Every structure is written in structure tokens, then in C-alpha cells.
Amino acid sequence: MAALSWAAALRGARGLCGLAARGAAGFLRHGSPRTYAAVSAESLPTFGFLLDIDGVLVRGHNVIPAALDAFHRLVTPQGHLRVPVVFVTNAGNTLQHRKAQELSALLGCKVEPDQVILSHSPMKIFSQHHDKRMLVSGQGPVVENARALGFRNVVTMEELRTAFPVLDMVDLERRPTTTPPLRSDFPAIEGVLLLGEPVRWETSLQLIVDVLLSNGNPGTGLVTAPYPHLPVLASNMDLLWMAEAKMPRFGHGTFLLCLEAIYQKLTGKELRYEALMGKPSLLTYQYAEQLIRQQAERRGWAAPIRRLYAVGDNPMSDIYGANLFHQYLQRAECAAQAEQQGAGGPQKQWPSATQSCTSILVCTGVYRPQEPSAREQPFHGHRDFGFSPALLRASHVVSDIHEAMRLAFREEGWTW
Ligand SMILES: [Mg+2]
């Protein structure tokens, strides 16, 4: 699938959210699951799982016992998964193969790197930017990650800061003691990758804004900032996350909020993203669906995957995203039917047989059943995602991942 059509699909998410607010009722299935007169014989899978990691399979460095039970049943005696599975996390400060190794060790079954979707993994499809000189923001193995995503010409914040030492002036201890000569041999930056929350926010905020305002030449100091500005690709919009502290911690969404506010204040214009990815973005679910399909093909399962079950612990990212994707699939299905009848309309923008994405909320992570409803809480989602409270309601709420998989297998008429 072409990168541009994915990007277009992502931009469509905004409209979908708006539409959802007007008429989402009815698409979420609640209540009793389908019943079967008899459990059918297990054959080729036509369903698969999108599994969140933190709060679903692990808490900190410890595996959740229910996950071990679930994978014990999900894996054949030969060590193969019975159905396609991808792991979808908003984490980004690690490498895909390292996360796969961690999961393999924790779950006791082989997890391949291409079963893991980190928050920035969909950047692989934005090949039109892969040869551009991109400034990368984040922490951990940012250069390795950017290269693994396909970006061949990456500049780190530290390299930029070293090239132009007079830009980073907040920390008195880090200010240059002499004025270095102006560099003219530093090639222009052509775009910005925001992979995750950096450390020293003041440095990253200052240098990213400098790059955008100067059209990639922060040594020159333009009088008029170009608009539209250089392309910005960002992943992980989570405002907050839970660690050991009793109160939530700042996530990358908080960093983006700061960057957007500064850019808006300085220019009077909105910071625009070429793409925003990570849950709950539609792009991430489309990417996950593509990996599920490829996995099924590799296993030689000829039957198309028609139904996905997305299991997560966070209503704002896991459930909202799964429901948004389900809604998209439903609309695409309607459009396809209309097309067949000659009415035209929007089509699914990639080859897909998937018809539904069922959201299942577990209680082993962020979500607490006794919490006040989302309607009483402020919206913590990103600016570019309209808020539709209906999308926060899971199709099913269960205790843990084992219950979630049991439910899905029962719905599919498979033995568990
Ligand atoms: Mg989670």
C-alpha cells in the first residue's frame, strides 16, 4: 500500500471522530456474546488478536499470571500460535527486536520482531521522507530506531546543539563561554521525527522550534517563518502514563502539547503533523491489520482474516483506537456495498478483508472499574482527535487477558 494513501487515511481520522460524535450509537456490541448450537471444528483462523503489552501482559518487569495461562492455550504443543497475533504498544524507546526478545522470554513462546508494533513502527511506510535529513527527538536508541524505520540521514538533538552551541541557552551551566564562529557547512534539516519524550525538554523544544522557524537552517535566523513548515512525523500521543508513582507521569503527549503551544504562540499558526501514529491513531491499526494479514499468509492460512480482537487496559488509547478502527471498517464496508450498487463513495484504501475490530478492556492495568465515567473526566486525547465519548466504551470488559481470549475463542466457536 502506498504511503500517501495511508497518510490520507490518517487525516481522515479527524473526520471520522466528528462523525462518530453525531452517530456512533449502535456499532458497539455489548451484552451477551454470540451463542453456538455446537462448537465447530477448529479450522483455518479467520480472526486474530491485537494485544497491548503493558497492563495486559506485563506490569513493569513482571509477567501477569493470566498472560501465561492465556499463551499456554494459545500456543500448540509444537510451539506455534493457533491464530495470528501482533503486539501493539505505545512504547517507543526500545528496539523492535529487543521487545520481541523480552516478550519471548516472558511468555515462553517465540515472538518475532515483525509481530511487535512500537508507537513509531508505521513510520516505515512514509518512504517519501526516508532520504531526507531528519532531526530526531526522543531518548534511548533513537538513531538505531530511526534507521530501522528506513530513515537514512538522521541528525540527533545533540549533534545540532554541538553544531550551533548558542541555541541552547536555558541551562546556565551548558551555555558556551565563548561565541563560536557561525557554521555555514551544516546541511539544512528537511524534517522532524518525534519518536518519544526526550530528556532536557527545554533543549528539544528550543531546537525543534528553531528548525521549524528557520526552515531547517537554525544558524541563519529567518525573519518570516515558512508556512507550511517542514514535515513533522510524531508517535505516541499519550498525555500521561502510569509508573511506580501513585500519580500518572508526563508522556510524549505532554511534550507535544508544549511544542504545539509554543509554535502557535510564536507564529499564530497551528503546528501541523504530516502523521501522528501510535494508539489510538487509525494508521496504527491499519498497520497492525497489515501485519496480521502477512503473518497469516506466512503461516499458509488461506482463509482471510475477517475479525480482529483488540485487547488493552487503557480506554483512551486501546479502546478508543480499536473502536475508531471498527467504525472505519464499518464505513468502508458500507461504501463498498454502495460502490457495488453504483452509488460510489469512499473505499478502503488498502486490500483488506477485515470486517470488524472488537475492543476488549481488561482490569489488570490502568483501567479501574470503579473509576468515574469518561464523561466526567477531561479529554486527555490529542488535539487532532475529536472527542467522542462513545468510542471509550469497550465492547467487553473482562478481568484479564485469559478471559479476553477465552471470550474471543467462544465467539469464534473455537475450543479454548
Ligand atoms: Mg497498556
UniProtKB/TrEMBL annotation:
Cellular component aspect of the GO annotation: mitochondrion
Superkingdom of the organism of origin: Eukaryota
Keyword Kinase on entry: no
Record InterPro entries: CDP-alcohol_PTase-I, HAD-like_sf, HAD-SF_hydro_IIA, HAD-SF_hydro_IIA_CECR5, HAD_sf
Residues making up the signal peptide according to the UniProt record: 1-15
SUPFAM superfamilies given in the database record: HAD-like (SSF56784)
Presence of keyword GTP-binding: no
Keywords: Signal
GO BP annotations, alphabetical order: glycerophospholipid biosynthetic process
CDD domains per the UniProt record, alphabetical: HAD_like
Family: Belongs to the HAD-like hydrolase superfamily.
Name of the protein described by the UniProt record: Haloacid dehalogenase-like hydrolase domain-containing 5
Organism, as annotated: Octodon degus (Degu)
Highest classification ranks of the organism: Eukaryota, Metazoa, Chordata, Craniata, Vertebrata
